[in-house]
Amino acid sequence: MLVNKLRKVAVVGTGLVGSSTAFSLANQCVCEEIILIDINKERAFGEVLDISHGVEYFSSRTQIKTGEYKDCEDVDVVVITAGAPPRAGQTRLDTLEMSAKVVESIINPIMDSGFNGIFVMISNPVDIITYHVWKLSGLPRNKVIGTGTSLDSARLKSLLSEQLGVDPRSIQAYSMGEHGDSQMVPWSHVYVGGKPFSKIREENPDTYGALDLDALVLKTANLGWDVVNRKGTTYYGIASAAVGIIKSILHNEKRVIPVSTIIEGVYNQDKPIAISVPAIIGIDGVEDVVVIDMTKEEEEKFDKSAKVIRDYISKLGY
Questions:
Q1: Is 179 noted as a catalytic residue in this protein?
Q2: Which CATH code of 3.90.110.10, 3.30.499.10, 3.90.960.10, 1.10.3720.10 fits the domain covering 150-316?
Q3: Does residue 94 have a pLDDT over 80?
Q4: From which domain of life does this come (predicted)?
Q5: Which of 27, 225, 293, 307 has the greatest CB tally within 10 Å of its CB?
């Protein structure tokens, strides 16, 4: 007798980010079942109806339904999108107090259901919230993942693509550290088609050599605000990044993605911290952390970003 376990994903929060994540999961046929959970049950049911009406035109059928925290017992991945969006003049870090309270009301009942899958955190400030969920859930560190700089890295590659005239998928580049203003880029590990970016700049001093790398990092960190200032919030990009992580988990792709994960004993971190580094993502979540050798200047920038995160983690009493 053929036994086939359905791959299930629960999305908590059906605002623009949660609904976009659910739609992307269904449209890309990443799993067989999606459960939408929201305190606003009517909103959640509306999203279920809207997405399910498009299943006719997807390449395979995904069952979409509303649910409650108790339904997370046999779910493979729970995506948390609920949180407090920053108001005008705020940074992501300024939303910590409210977002922490929101996730506290979510994590405990999910764990009470018997959930033993993987959390994918989108809620900001994502690094601190990822650490908080790790502590609240009691799950092993590989099972609590924040989207971190996965989207920032895609934005960085998009900016480099515009400068170089190369498909961003042919560029290897990571934004690391905080998903926020202190993020950094290890330029010594940026490659274009396998060729070091530093070599390309050296060979083209009048064009690429003149690029202001610090300005590019700052622009990468601020691109999300460029979207917010024009349309109110971001959701397609972060939903795509989250689904990329989930797909690598459920399909066991072993893809290297920069995510916020709990590290200790690497990257000069002698105590646990949730921070974005390149990681191998597979069926067990974060299966390994890719440790790259950075220059002394890059290490200092990473340490500075880590200190920002630690200072805010301490606000939660850890």
A1: yes
A2: 3.90.110.10
A3: no
A4: Bacteria
A5: 27
